[in-house]
From TrEMBL:
PANTHER family, sorted: GLYOXALASE DOMAIN-CONTAINING PROTEIN 5, GLYOXALASE FAMILY PROTEIN
Gene3D superfamilies in the record: 2,3-Dihydroxybiphenyl 1,2-Dioxygenase, domain 1
Protein name per Swiss-Prot or TrEMBL: VOC domain-containing protein
Domain of life: Archaea
Domain (VOC): residue spans on this chain: 2-125
Organism field: Candidatus Marsarchaeota G1 archaeon OSP_D
Stored InterPro entries: Glyas_Bleomycin-R_OHBP_Dase (IPR029068), Glyas_Fos-R_dOase_dom (IPR004360), GlyoxalaseI/FosfomycinResist (IPR050383), VOC_core (IPR037523)
Length: 127
């Protein structure tokens, strides 16, 4: 289960893209819109190829919660062969669900909580 990226919530996507690309040297890979209205940007480190995902959520989105600086962790993302199967296996081990599986933009996504309540995304390509 390789760790693919680290996702953080941002309050202004454009200024965050500028900061991480112009000032810190990350490269913009892609941007997109989520089915619930959120917008994401994937930024890649040109040396390590690790991806930082910036997530912005509009008012009314189920993910638009009060923002406190320093608590912007959105989730850690793991790519798996079968997100539904891994989700079920983790629940059977007593892991708490954060968000039950759904399909978005060709991916099956499911979220569980780590022991401290941080969200972990399980993602697999939809068949």
């Amino acid at each position: 289960m390789p760790l693919k990226y680290f996702g953080i919530r941002v309050t202004n996507l454009e200024s965050s893209i500028d900061f991480y690309t112009r000032l810190l040297g990350l490269k913009l890979k892609t941007t997109g819109k989520m089915e619930h209205g959120g917008v994401f940007a994937e930024l890649e480190d040109p040396v390590t190829h690790f991806v930082l995902e910036l997530n912005w959520y509009p008012r009314g989105s189920p993910f638009d919660t009060p923002y406190t600086p320093g608590e912007g962790l959105d989730h850690l993302g793991f790519e798996v062969d079968d997100a539904l199967a891994v989700f079920k296996r983790l629940l059977a081990e007593g892991v708490e669900p954060a968000l039950h599986p759904f399909v978005d933009s060709g991916w099956v996504l499911a979220f569980v909580k780590d022991p401290d309540g941080n969200w972990i995304e399980l993602a697999s390509k939809a068949s």
